[in-house]
User: Which sequence fits this backbone?
């Protein structure tokens, strides 16, 4: 294997190539993408370090480090490792999963509004969770997670089937998502009206997406599934880049477009489902992360790894804000993410003049 | 994805519109007869709305209570519950339908409805502020907040939708409505999660209901809605001309800017007034103009006339259904309209082309 061979550039920017003949794999890296990636990772580390020090009581950074190395006193270790660390890890990995899922859906629909939020997944998983919490009356973590998984996956499948007419078209997928979400929204508010105020409020807190109260017990199962899903998502990348050139070009290059699309929907939904099961429906990360990543790296396509890193950074930052004002993190992401989307739209429209 | 991202794959381009269907009812005579028939159905539904309820009352009792309110329980049920509820339906239904017809004609987008453009989120946001921050607890107090919120957000969505092109681009307005609704919704739920009282009020308000409003509140809002109806009927003809394109419209002597302003004012007053009275009720504004268009074709004057009559029929029927299914009042009309309306939206989108305007 040759390491980082500098190759003639395709778009006037320095690029490096990693090549191996056996197995026959080559990876092309863009220098700016790498630089941006390193900076984003550095920012995640910085914000993460701050998260571990901040909370009800301030812990100096030196104490945090010794607690992480297992040399701190028991109280600090309890606070930092048992309470704050799992929350931080959840923020990083959930953010990354959402960013990737958004990248997949936006490539698929060729539309920055394409995210599992929009095609009805969020409403469906909320319905599933509400049925468990308010009708079956169970607040067990794993039961709620299962309910939200089943609800979300069934809804996404329904929207996909309804939008299917000799293939799936992005715009129709979005409209079907709006319709199905509206019906489920009615069901959800009916369930909320039936419930006692206290139950309804805790259901609503779950429904906004929250990282409160998560521990390592819930982290390891999630990480295991994520480790399985990420390579599958990355494997879809080359095909997606061909698909972005249009169906005809992709087919001419020998791509089975419908099968690829189905693969993208399945993996994209699985990534979001994982996050929803763990922390509730955290909205707008999937929408905003790929778009921000694209602008940071300055490339035309939607890169999955930059989107994942940006998603991780966004959710880590949102969690800092959420923690300091004691609200579910999903409230922060929807407010900030929505504002960002508005700015994005206005900028896009200005250019159309 | 290319660097000049299209925000939505399919855009309504007036130049390439398919020829519009003239509708199934062609002649003015039959259209008038159809309108009269619809008005007859409305009368029947109105009577049914007063007759049917949680308590079984005979026709004689209802009539006696209606014309001779003597303070008995029956008279109270009729005059305090069923009559206000029916009147609210008769005021809110046409307002929602007409607002939908206007916004669809205006944006030339058959998928536009005032809720999609952020009116509901705006009203909801201001009501949350009123309840959660300012401490209002009385539905009468926050009617005005809902009205102002609806107005402010419609204007904002319109402004964002006009950036760049200078005209209100339908896709731009829809996306701006979605984004603005998300932001306002997020902030509103943040406030209500901090405040159980606000949360409780909002979960009821957000479901949309035509019950539990007093006749005084209706009397305060009705003139506004009446103004909206007049404005809507005034722009029916200019909208017909503009449907052929801005240039044709101009050469026919229509003021494009003037028509737009009147439409935005009318939509704000109609949808804002309706939402203030009944909370967010979806899909009436989307559905009714569509159904009507299948029958009478693209002439806005007929569309509006039919919409005025058909919308309250649908709203009252949905409300009666809700009352029959769950007499306790838990099933609110806003929930029933969405369940009835969404399948129609899905059916429309599954057709090869969304029906032209």
Assistant:
């Amino acid at each position: 294997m040759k390491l980082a061979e500098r190759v003639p550039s395709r778009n006037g920017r320095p690029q490096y190539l990693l090549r191996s003949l056996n197995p026959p794999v080559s990876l092309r890296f863009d220098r700016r993408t790498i630089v941006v990636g390193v900076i984003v990772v550095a920012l995640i580390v910085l914000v993460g370090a701050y998260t571990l020090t901040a909370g009800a009581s301030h812990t100096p950074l030196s104490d945090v480090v010794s607690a992480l190395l297992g040399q701190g006193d028991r109280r600090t270790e309890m606070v930092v490792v048992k309470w704050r660390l799992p929350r931080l890890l959840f923020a990083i990995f959930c953010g990354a999963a959402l960013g990737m899922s958004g990248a997949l859906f936006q490539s698929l629909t060729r539309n920055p509004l394409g995210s599992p939020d929009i095609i009805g997944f969020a409403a469906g998983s909320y319905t599933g969770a509400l049925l468990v919490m308010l009708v079956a009356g169970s607040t067990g973590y794993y039961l709620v997670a299962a309910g939200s998984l089943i609800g979300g996956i069934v809804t996404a499948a329904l929207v996909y089937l309804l939008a299917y007419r000799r293939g799936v078209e992005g715009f129709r997928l979005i409209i079907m998502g709006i319709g199905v979400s509206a019906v489920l929204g009615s069901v959800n508010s009916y369930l909320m009206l039936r419930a006692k105020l206290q139950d309804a409020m805790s259901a609503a807190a779950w429904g906004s997406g929250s990282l409160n109260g998560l521990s390592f017990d819930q982290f390891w199962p999630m990480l295991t599934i994520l480790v399985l899903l990420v390579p599958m998502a990355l494997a879809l990348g080359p095909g997606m880049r061909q698909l972005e050139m249009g169906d005809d070009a992709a087919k001419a290059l020998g791509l089975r477009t419908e099968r690829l699309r189905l693969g993208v929907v399945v993996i994209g939904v699985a990534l979001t489902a994982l996050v929803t099961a763990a922390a509730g429906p955290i909205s707008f990360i999937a929408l905003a992360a790929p778009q921000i990543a694209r602008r940071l790296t300055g490339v035309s396509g939607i890169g999955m790894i930059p989107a994942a890193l940006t998603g991780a950074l966004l959710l880590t930052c949102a969690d800092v804000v959420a923690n300091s004002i004691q609200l579910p993190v999903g409230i922060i992401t929807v407010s900030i993410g929505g504002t960002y989307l508005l700015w994005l739209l206005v900028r896009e429209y200005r250019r159309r003049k | 994805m290319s660097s000049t991202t299209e925000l939505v794959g399919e855009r309504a381009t007036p130049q390439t519109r398919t020829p519009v269907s003239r509708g199934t009812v062609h002649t003015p005579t039959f259209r008038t007869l159809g309108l009269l028939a619809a008005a007859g159905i409305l009368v029947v539904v109105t009577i049914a709305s007063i007759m049917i309820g949680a308590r079984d009352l005979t026709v004689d009792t209802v009539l006696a209570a209606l014309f001779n309110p003597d303070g008995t329980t029956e008279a109270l049920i009729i005059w305090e519950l069923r009559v206000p509820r029916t009147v609210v339906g008769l005021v809110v239904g046409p307002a929602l339908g007409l607002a939908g017809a206007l916004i669809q004609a205006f944006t030339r987008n058959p998928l536009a409805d005032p809720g999609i453009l952020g009116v509901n989120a705006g009203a909801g946001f201001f009501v949350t502020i009123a309840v959660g921050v300012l401490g209002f607890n009385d539905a009468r107090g926050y009617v005005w907040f809902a009205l102002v919120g609806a107005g402010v957000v419609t204007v904002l969505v319109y402004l964002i939708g006009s950036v760049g092109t200078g005209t209100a681009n339908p896709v731009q307005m829809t996306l701006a409505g979605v984004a603005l609704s998300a932001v306002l919704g997020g902030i509103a739920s943040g406030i209500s999660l901090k405040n159980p009282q606000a949360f409780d009020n909002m979960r009821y308000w957000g479901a949309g209901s035509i019950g539990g409003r007093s006749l005084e509140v209706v009397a305060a809002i009705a003139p506004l809605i009446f103004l909206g109806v007049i404005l809507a009927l005034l722009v029916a003809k200019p909208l017909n001309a503009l449907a052929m394109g801005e240039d044709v419209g101009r050469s026919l002597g229509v003021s494009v800017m003037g028509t737009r302003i009147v439409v935005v004012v009318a939509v704000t007053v109609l949808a804002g007034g309706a939402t203030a009275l009944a909370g967010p009720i979806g899909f009436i504004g989307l559905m009714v103009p569509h159904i009507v268009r299948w029958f009478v074709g693209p002439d806005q004057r007929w569309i509006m006339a039919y919409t005025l009559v058909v919308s309250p029929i649908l709203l009252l029927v949905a409300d009666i259904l809700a009352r029959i299914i769950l007499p306790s009042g838990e099933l609110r009309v806003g929930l029933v309209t969405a369940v009835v309306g969404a399948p129609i939206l899905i059916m429309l989108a599954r057709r090869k082309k969304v029906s032209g305007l």
Q: What stands out?
A: Chain A touches chain B through 61 residues (CB under 8 Å). The longest strand of chain A covers residues 2-7.
